[in-house]
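Try this one yourself first.
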């Protein structure tokens, strides 16, 4: 590894959409570090075996990836950036395999669901086989020399494993975007076109959440995302994850967060970083 080449951890095999998002954010010169689990991505950055990591947190069709919200709280890493990328699925097979040969289609359950109408039209009798990863499905076909199967994954995965693309644009809805977060061990607080992510809990009393959200409304701060997760060990109590437009270095945002801390029982800034486009 050269002195300037960054090691970037992501979940999945080479060719995963997370790797593509990393290339969009960092450029082609990265050294990708595939990880089996999201937990391993966090641990790779914490241990120093990766400079930074990238994780998906939200899909425009399927919603939030709750596991990663929980991991953000469990680990002491900082959000240092975000990437939004369109998910373009392709139907991939071994060279020489035709549509008539295919009796099974492999992919991550979410990818299979996002291509359901296309698969029903093209391959109505083919079995859908859930797998742990989109790119991993392509790797499995290649390593097993599978002649009667296909996979749903990215064009990048087809290129990496030297496979054939039978059909482009398999996704049923073109408005299929995933938002990824870039994780680092040190904060680099952004002020230009920034977004800030926080998590907090509050007492379970009437009006408590309203008062917490009002600290932003009073200062005309735009909330871009609100997510609640169960507070472990406290039945029917919740953690609230909030993204808002602005930086912790802006006076109005700094004041809002100081005000919020007076109303909460737990509070943490997860990161203040450049907004993705």
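Now uncover the answer:
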């Amino acid at each position: 590894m050269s002195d300037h080449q960054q090691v970037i951890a992501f979940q999945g095999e080479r060719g995963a959409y997370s790797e593509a998002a990393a290339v969009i954010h960092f450029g082609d010169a990265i050294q990708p570090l595939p990880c089996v689990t999201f937990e391993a991505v966090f641990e790779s950055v914490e241990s120093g075996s990766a400079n930074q990591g990238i994780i998906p947190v939200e899909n425009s069709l399927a919603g939030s990836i709750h596991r990663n919200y929980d991991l953000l709280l469990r680990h002491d890493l900082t959000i240092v950036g975000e990437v939004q990328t369109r998910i373009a699925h392709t139907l991939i097979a071994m060279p020489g395999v035709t549509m008539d040969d295919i009796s099974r289609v492999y992919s991550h359950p979410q990818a299979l669901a996002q291509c359901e109408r296309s698969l029903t039209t093209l391959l109505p009798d083919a079995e859908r086989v859930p797998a742990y990863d989109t790119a991993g499905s392509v790797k499995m076909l290649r390593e097993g020399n599978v002649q009667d199967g296909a996979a749903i994954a990215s064009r990048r995965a087809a290129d990496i494993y030297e496979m054939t693309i039978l059909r482009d644009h398999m996704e049923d809805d073109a408005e299929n975007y995933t938002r990824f977060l870039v994780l680092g061990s040190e904060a680099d607080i952004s002020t230009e076109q920034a977004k800030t992510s926080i998590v907090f809990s509050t007492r379970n009393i009437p009006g408590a959440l309203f008062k917490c959200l009002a600290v932003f409304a009073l200062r005309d701060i735009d909330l871009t995302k609100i997510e609640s997760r169960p507070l472990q060990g406290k039945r029917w109590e919740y953690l609230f994850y909030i993204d808002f437009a602005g930086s912790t270095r802006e006076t109005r945002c700094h004041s809002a967060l100081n005000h919020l801390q007076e109303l909460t029982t737990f509070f943490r800034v997860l990161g203040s970083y450049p907004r993705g486009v």
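Discussion: Residues 134-144 form the longest helix (11 residues). The radius of gyration is 21 Å.
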